[in-house]
Design a protein that fits this description.
The complex is a heterodimer of chains A (516) and B (436). Chain A has 516 residues and is α+β, with helices and mostly antiparallel strands. Chain A has eleven helices and 16 strands. In chain A, the strands form four sheets. In chain A, strands 2-1-5-4-3 form a five-stranded antiparallel β-sheet, with helices on both faces. In chain A, a hairpin with a 5-residue loop joins strand 4 and strand 5. With 436 residues, chain B is of the alpha/beta class. Chain B has three domains: 159 residues, Immunoglobulin-like (Sandwich); 180 residues, von Willebrand factor, type A domain (Rossmann fold, 3-Layer(aba) Sandwich), CATH 3.40.50.410; 86 residues, no CATH class. In chain B, strand 9, helix 6 and strand 10 form a beta-alpha-beta unit. The chains are: A alpha+beta (516), B alpha/beta (436). Chains A and B meet through helix 2, helix 3, helix 6 and strand 7 of A and strand 7, helix 4, helix 5, strand 13 and strand 14 of B.
Amino acid sequence: MKPRLAIILLLIVLIPLGLMVWLGFRVARGELATVKESIRKLHIEKLQDVEGNIRKVIQRRERELLELAGSVKEDPYSIRKLVRSQPALRQVFVLAKDGKLVHPAVQSQLSRQEEEFLARAGQVWKDQAVFFRPSSETRPSTAADSGWYSWYWGSGSHFVFWHRTAAGRVTGFELDRFRLVADIIAELPDTGLSDSAPEGGLLSLLDARGESLYGWGGYNPGAQEQPLVSLTLKSPLSSWRLAYFRSGEPTAAFGTGLWFNLVAVLLLAAIALSVLAAYFFRESSRELREAGQRVSFVNHVSHELKTPLTNIRMYAELLQESAIGDDPKASRYLEVVVTESVRLSRLINNVLSFARHQRKALKVRKTDGVVDEIVAAVLESFTPSLDSRGIQARFQAGAPGRVQVDPDALGQIVGNLLGNVEKYAPGSGELHIESRREGQTTVVLVTDNGPGIEPAERENVFQPFVRLSSEVSDGVAGTGIGLSIARELARLHGGDLTLEESRPGSTFKLTLSTPE
Amino acid sequence: MKSLVSRMTLIAGACALLACSVKAGQVDLKVAVSHPVMLADQKQTAYLRIGLTGLPVVEATQRAPVNVAIVLDRSGSMSGRKLSEAKQAAILAIGQLGADDIVSVVTYDNRVNVLVPATKVSDRHTINAAIRRIRSGGSTALFAGVSKGASEVRKFLSSDRANRVILLSDGLANVGPSSPEALASLGTSLIKEGISVTTIGLGLGYNEDLMYRLASASDGKHVFVEHPSQLASIFKREFGDLLSVVANEILVEISCAEGIRPVRVFARDADITGQRVTTKLSQLYGRQEKYVLMEVEVPGMPEGKSRPIADVNVNYNNVVTKGSVSLSGSAKVAFSRSSHAVSKRANTKVMVSAVEQVAVDNNIRAMRLRDQGKVAEARKLLLSNEKYLNDNAARYKNEKLRTWGAESGKDADNLSPEKWKSRRKQMREIQFDMAY
């Protein structure tokens, strides 16, 4: 009983705890993923902010250049003057409506800078269709338009902002790309000296080859370190990207906290459940102890009752045989005393057997004996009370041989069976008892003509303390352990006690292993 | 008689054409030709020299306010003596500035820190305390450092101020754009705004080509400092110069006369298109002379004739009186059959400048040869350059040329691997001084 209780209590603790661990783990993992995602979003937003600042530099440049575009004349002198005065510009070119290069005109006298420009701008002339393309399907190609164009030459990207007038003339401004970088750097934040910077990270602007143009923040990533997040810039800087580097796992600190909380909660739950389990254990073991004490008390009392009862019975029988027994009135009284003593001693035997059974101390001791003699003796002791209840017992004895049998056990079983008939089948007429020998076993059948037992209840009658709640048992006193003890004894005796199919009444079949 | 007449005409012409000097405001413009008299009937080469001299400011109160960004390298290699001397030098230099001057301090290693954003030098205490706190760090993001320095100067950019970035570096730029071309490009762009960069190379670890190109493209100055102890005096000199700036954003436009072909402009980044040549100078200090030297091809003319060479127009901002000033000048040459007359009338000052520029070209060529490992050829070229300088020093009785000649000789003796690293930096500094 106790180990089973311990296992149940352990399960009561472990199953919810396991469930909590599993759920907690899942929730924590989900939480961690959510946090990671939101941190990633935060970083992306940060990069988008920076991208916005870079965008501002480009837009400012666009505005300046659009303003300039209006004032550009085709006269080379004024164009050169413009290039000389504008820090952002490296070169300016002008294309006529038909795509012909007006400035710097190849056949004219060119400065060294203009010649260098023509050398690096070969790709531009190949792609010049982009300058003349209609800006959208709804707008004709004759509408004024502007845009960015970039190409790769030498060791890096070169940028052109172009503007097309309504008349179709295109002015292209080649930007000094290093100046552009310098302007963007000027717009971006610097790194404070004591700064461990944005949460120990590094924001870096990377060029087309992935080399850092500028970075700010207190963190120094390794040579091969991949950024946590990166963002490609918009045109015309689309070959560049912003990258955010950070030391270690960003959510590590958060994760540790989360796990710590989870473990703490689980620990608390485990403690609470254990306390609860311990409480239950204590309660139930106290109940068990108390029940045990009660059983041992009953046991004790039963033992104490047995001796005086035997004496009462013996003296009552002696009285029956003496002179007083001749008085019919006294003789009837004595018979009642004897019958009730027998019943009481059977009852006490049952209680003792049950108590032994509970202690696993119920035993069967086989000795030499004759089954028929034992059954007959029991039947004889029941005859007066059976008679008085209108039951006529008929014993068909068929096991007269000497065999190994426990006479007490057999007597108790048969007594219980007869006692039940006496109790539950009054006025049922004939009670048929039959014994026979089948090889090494002896079979005893007890058949009454009482109300019988419902098929559904057939096994239940053998459960201790089960008394069939029906008209059968109504108004009848009993302990509810008789059949249970009888079956237990039969089984200990290498046999069984079963309820056989029979109508009307009921037939109990007792099988005992009775070697010769 | 005829020869006398022609001689008289020639002298008169020479007097009229030899040199025309225009004085106005703070700058003195002198346009001169190397050979005011040229051999007749021959196509020849001549040098046109446009000399600009700053006139000293008489009253100290008149000086232009300075707008300077000090960009300090605080990379790991600067740690110790170098950084402490640099900090001390910067503090001393800022001490020379007045309350109306503007200063900013930018430090860089692999990151850039705007330590002191552009501010008036009224609260020296805070600025100095910030400088004292500088600690050395990691790599060298030189480009970003200059970019941030320039953007600080830009906050108070004015043609009435002496706008300058002073860059100190002791190491190779290794973060961000790091090629000499990239820095030259940045320099070219900065001078368009009137910002020039002084580059101070400290020790033997920096890239002198990069520092040279950045300084020359922005018409600044390049200095080689071998020992940290020299920093204080270099800063002092540099700031002293800045305090005496008299003219800013000097635009020189040369229109060559018909038939005259501009061949090249020495050292300076100039825009030559057809007959028109344009170049820009950043600043001019009081008593400082800067010049633009151009080689021109002059077609021959008959004896006795003369022809104009070029008209020169100079536009600058007078920082003392705060206003734009235009100067103009021109040069002509006469022709003679007498080679004696030609050489006798040669302009010594122009010739000395031409010799300097040719010698610089030779020196740079020799440096390139040495870079390619051609030590013997480099040595030969340097020795011939020494001789060239010394000969001309004697011919024009010019001490400066003699000094350069001696340096060229030293260059030739320091081509061995162990001495080359240091000497190359020195050569770069001397080339800069000779060329500008």
